[in-house]
Amino acid sequence: MDILNNLRENRTKQVKAFDDTKSGVKGLIDAAASGLVDIPRIFIRPTDELAEDLELNRTSLQVPAIDLTGVGDKGGSRRKIVEEVKHAAENWGFFQVVNHGVPIKVLQDMLNGVREFHEQDVEIKKEYYSRDPERMVKFNSNYDLYMSRAANWRDTLIIDLLNTYHLDPQHLPSVCRESTVEYLNYLTKLVDTLFELLSEALGLEPNHLKLLECEKGRSLACHYYPACPKPDQTLGLNKHTDASFITILLQDEVQGLQVMHQNQWADVEPIPGALVVNIGDLLQIISNDKFKSVIHRVFGNVALTRTSVACFFHGVATPPKIYGPIEKVITEECPQMFREFTVIDYMMKFQSRGLDEKSGLNYVRL
User: Fold this and answer.
1) 223 vs 20: CA distance, rounded Å
2) What is the distance between the alpha carbons of residues 290 and 92, in angstroms, rounded to a whole number?
3) Under a CB-based contact definition with an 8 Å cutoff, are residues 287 and 335 in contact?
4) Which pLDDT value is given to residue 358?
5) CB contact at 8 A, 293 and 279
6) What is the C-alpha to C-alpha distance for residues 255 and 33, in angstroms, rounded to an integer?
7) Exposed (0-12), middle (13-18) or buried (19+): which is 170, by Cβ within 10 Å?
8) 266-307 confidence digits (pLDDT tens)
9) What percent of the chain is modeled with pLDDT above 90?
10) Torsion sign, CA atoms 64, 65, 71, 73
11) What is the rounded distance in angstroms from the CA atom of residue 46 to the CA atom of residue 38?
């Protein structure tokens, strides 16, 4: 027991020393004058996790890609899209969308702005370094750094709009201010379309999820995954599900995202101009288990840096709003699977544990 306690104490000291630099993983690399050869111990995954990975196969099956051309039509084109969304939400929990209405330049500017933020002088970034849950715009490495079994190889700029629906652009870093505001403006229209399609896929009126205000309460995680000298020993992002209704992910051309499908890891191959959409825990709950929030992760790359932007749509957090399985999807064959919850309570439980722990769905499952 003393040995175990000593190991924990040593890890805590190492984690704090890393955190105190306020420079993240990118700072570790920049500080290594002759290039980083090994990774610090706090990033090395436990042996049981590595062994578990060896038992899981990888599949060549691909996450569905859905073309939204014709989504505004009321005829066959829209019905086909709804069926594709239904299949993906029920069987994959993930899909990619193309011809979604967000210009390529807006996507590229957003990725460039995030990359420029993370690659700028560390002294400028340090002004944003924080673990204060009340701070709207902050930069750090691993929100669960002090709780996880192993740290992940990534830094993140967080824009937390969970408790406010107004973003003052002046709060954003100047290097990515305009690109972020423009990107979020385009996402507002796209997310309305996606919730309409998901409503229809559940057999509901198109505005059902909109009336539940599922699109309110957003947060943006702008991830930067530096090239890693030992990607077989760590992860960019631990396996997890999202505490959201849906998540819209913008990723660059560097592969890294993997989704659990039929107990196998499936790569989410980057498609130029596409956005990745995934079902979050909260939509699985209110759909009464019809739509699936599935485990996913990000692995590292030995030679290339990866950039991505995840926009989480959490619904109404404040004032507290009660959510629960939609009455119209509860049937005799499919009785109620979950109890009611508030977003703020679900989020507090989610953020009080390590990202690599079991799904938060266990909190509300009946």
Assistant:
1) 20
2) 11
3) no
4) 64
5) yes
6) 28
7) exposed
8) 999 999 999 999 999 999 999 999 999 999 999 999 999 999
9) 80
10) negative
11) 16
| CA–CA distance, 54 with 256 (Å, rounded to integer) | 17
Mind listing the pLDDT tens digit for each residue in 195-246? 999 999 999 999 999 999 999 999 999 999 999 999 999 999 999 999 999 9
363: its two tokens: 């909190």
Contact 194, 275 (CB under 8 A): no
Average pLDDT, the chain: 93
The amino acid present at 355, given as its one-letter code, is: L
CA–CA separation, 192 and 212 (whole Å): 12
| Contact in structure between 127 and 175 (CB atoms under 8 Å) | no
What is the C-alpha to C-alpha distance for residues 155 and 143, in angstroms, rounded to an integer? Answer: 9
- Give the DSSP letter of residue 365: B
With tokens 């003393």, the residue in question is: 2
**HSE of 302 in the Cβ direction (CA atoms, 13 Å)?**
7
Written as one letter, the residue type at 235 is: L
Asked if 325 and 285 touch (Cβ cutoff 8 Å), the reply is yes
Domains defined for the chain, CATH in brackets: 2-363 (2.60.120.330)
